[in-house]
Amino acid sequence: MSKDIYILGIETSCDETSMSIVKNGYEEVATTILTQMDTHAEFGGVVPEIASRMHTENITIVLDDLLKKANMSVNDVDAIAVTYAPGLLGSLLVGVEFAKTLSFIYNKPLIATNHIAGHIYANMLVKKIEFPALALVISGGHTELVLMKDDYKFEVLGSTQDDAIGECFDKVARVIGLPYPGGPNVEKYALKGKHTYDLPIPMNNDSLDFSYSGLKSSIINLAHNEEQRNHEIRKYDLARSFQDVAVDELVRKTKLAIRKEKNNIKEVIVAGGVSANKYLRSEMQKLCDSENVELSIPPIRYCTDNAAMIACAAYPQYLKKDFSNLELDAKSEDNLFND
Ligand code: KG4
Ligand code: ZN
User: Rounded distance, CA 50 to CA 56, Å?
Assistant: First the structure.
């Protein structure tokens, strides 16, 4: 029998300080997440300088808590994996320097893991990814339909021409006066509203690319015009109308991709922060049921930023001995899908 592999994952790319130990790339031993959301909410969004300072303050607390929960020591793990990109540079650096220190002190291999790969591999916590898989990657910086033929073998079928879907949720939240965090609040408001606003359908064609800037601008203009006329915006209805149009477009494009690749895909996986959206989850389930394809979406706690997904994504890297040295640097951007 082969030996079990334990990977310690570290995630500090935005406003969550998180660490996790995952066994064999799919079995979560323990995870700790310390969120800074309440602090940033006072400012209406993530303040990068505050985020990196708080990561520095919290990182050893998170490690202690994790090791206690897992009843393990750093000596017991086989590798240290850390998110090195993409994200807020100052925040990423805290995790990267900490990981390098642990790797040096405990003499463990260091793995540089991409945050978006983490969101995709979060699906391993539910079930093994079956290739070829069609991944819908929807986050603050990404809106992509990607064919995944094997571990880390990506072929982009379509991507956004302008704004990412999560960015659009956040912007719309701000324009209609909903507090930070934008996406979850738009979802909450949408639950109480009706689809009464007539909004343009983005990229109303058969291309697998996305475009959200037109939808975003139409909401900015609508809010502006209502303000000029001293009219109140119906926030619940506008949130609902936007969410319907934005999500329906994701579902429509996923359907097109499934049909184009029909004989080629074993399952659809959804990845990234926006996959926490319940309307999206139920519409994707309906789509996959009607197309007779399996759907895998991580439970909500694995959709938003966490280190368990980083430890999962690091496992195929561990198997390939894709290790980094102590010169590893954080990068605010690094496109996973380029090579
Ligand atoms: O993947 P993620 O945690 O961060 C990036 O790696 O970008 O995604 C964050 C994005 C934000 O834009 C946030 O508003 C959005 O995911 N988001 C949601 C929901 N929860 C988070 N969007 C819609 N509905 C949600 N429930
Ligand atoms: Zn993320």
Answer: 10
Find the ligand nearest to 243 CA: 1
pLDDT tens, residue by residue, 155-212 = 999 999 999 999 999 999 999 899 888 999 999 999 999 999 999 988 778 899 999 9
Alpha-carbon distance 227 to 74, whole Å?
Answer: 57
At 264 the pLDDT is 84
Pocket, ligand 1, Cβ cutoff 6 A: 115, 119, 139-141, 166-167, 169-170, 181-184, 187, 272-274, 276-277, 304-305
List the chain residues with pLDDT less than 50: none
DSSP letter string, 11-45: E-SSSEEEEEEEETTTEEEEEEEEE-HHHHHTTTS
For residue 140, give the H/E element and its range: none
What is the CA(305)–ligand 2 centre distance, in A? 5
Comparing CA positions, the residue from 179, 148, 72, 115 lying closest to residue 312 is: 115
Q: What is the pLDDT of residue 88?
A: 96
What CA–CA distances, in Å, run from 99 to 50, 109, 148?
21, 10, 29
Ligand nearest to the CA of 191: 1
Measured in Å, residue 228 CA sits from the centre of ligand 2 at 37
- Rounded to the nearest whole angstrom, what is the distance from the C-alpha of residue 184 to the centroid of ligand 1? 8
- CB atoms near residue 126 (< 10 Å): 14
Atom of ligand 1 nearest to the CA of 119: 1
From residue 72, alpha-carbon distances to 10, 18, 106, 320 in Å are: 16, 17, 14, 25
pLDDT at 70: 98
Residue tagged 């996790």 (tokens): 20
Contact criterion met (CB below 8 Å) for 293 and 267 = yes
pLDDT given at position 47: 93
Ligand 1 atom with the shortest distance to the CA of 182: 14
